[in-house]
Design a protein that fits this description.
Oligomer: single chain
CATH class: Alpha Beta
Order of helices and strands: HEHEHEHEHEHHHEHHE
Number of helices: 10
Bound molecules: S-adenosylmethionine
Helix content: 25-40%
Distance between the termini: 25 Å
Number of strands: 7
Shape: globular
Length: 233
């Protein structure tokens, strides 16, 4: 579902700054390139910024195997050093998937990302959703942990998570206009995998169900993750 939304964003990039249809994409914390390589396979140029040399080595292998090494650049660094590695205002699209949960200052991170985008550029942001972890702990029988997480979202060393309102507000403060908020993995993490694997057609039906609830706001508090598309005006 995230990929579907991202393809829509990439298809909507106007003729990129150099006059062709190639978008300039930065994948912050892109890790081993699960998204970056697929973006490059569509013909776009992707720079992956990640502090992990192991992840960048795996990215290089993956890009080679997919014949897109000429379009994918891995740079060791992090958000704090972003403008030592890429010019400000240069990106048509920035991906920030699974990173805002672990940086020291999410608000500062989003301001940096806004500065990396050209005016009119788009951010694809994937973050953990706060309430899902309470449900997950309760479903696993850890009722005490679930109770503690109700009042303290960081109880037990749980990484930072956001409600839809919180992340929308932080994005607004960083100068973004949020265009879509999607619920990601509302049911997938709650269903025993044996049910999905054994029942013929169950996996497809689950995907269809996830797609059907993704843009229903009442399901946002149940989603494991939130996927937001936001534009730098
Ligand atoms: C949960 S993984 C997400 C990987 C990938 N974006 C994905 O969606 O599969 C988080 C990644 O962020 C990287 N990371 C950690 N701190 C970072 C920072 N301050 N700036 C940029 N990347 C960071 C990690 O090395 C790791 O590859």
């Amino acid at each position: 579902m995230v990929w579907d939304a991202l393809q829509g964003v990439l298809a909507a990039v106007p003729d990129a700054s150099d006059g062709d249809k190639t978008a300039s994409v930065i994948d912050i914390g892109g890790g081993t390139g699960g998204f970056a390589v697929r973006v490059a396979e569509l013909g776009h140029r992707v720079t992956v910024i990640d502090p992990s040399p192991d992840a960048l080595a795996a990215l290089g292998r993956r890009a080679d195997e997919s014949d897109v090494a000429d379009l994918v650049t891995g740079q060791q660094g992090d958000l704090a050093s972003l403008f030592d590695l890429v010019p400000e205002g240069s990106a048509d699209v920035v991906l920030c998937h699974g990173v805002l949960e672990i940086v020291d200052d999410p608000a500062a991170a989003l301001r940096t990302i806004a500065a990396a985008l050209r005016p009119g550029g788009t951010l694809s942001l994937l973050v953990g959703q706060r309430h899902a972890v309470v449900v997950a702990r309760a479903m696993a029988g850890h009722f005490g942990q679930a109770r503690a997480l109700l009042d303290d979202p960081a109880a037990g060393g749980v990484t930072r998570r956001f409600t839809a309102d919180e992340i929308t507000s932080v994005l607004g403060d960083a100068g973004f206009e949020v265009s879509t908020v999607h619920a990601v993995r509302v049911f997938a993490d709650l269903v025993p995998s044996s049910l999905v694997d054994l029942e013929p057609g169950a996996a497809d039906a689950l995907v269809e169900l996830e797609q059907a609830v993704a843009d229903r706001p009442e399901y946002l508090p149940l989603a494991t993750q939130l996927h937001l598309i936001a534009v730098r005006p």
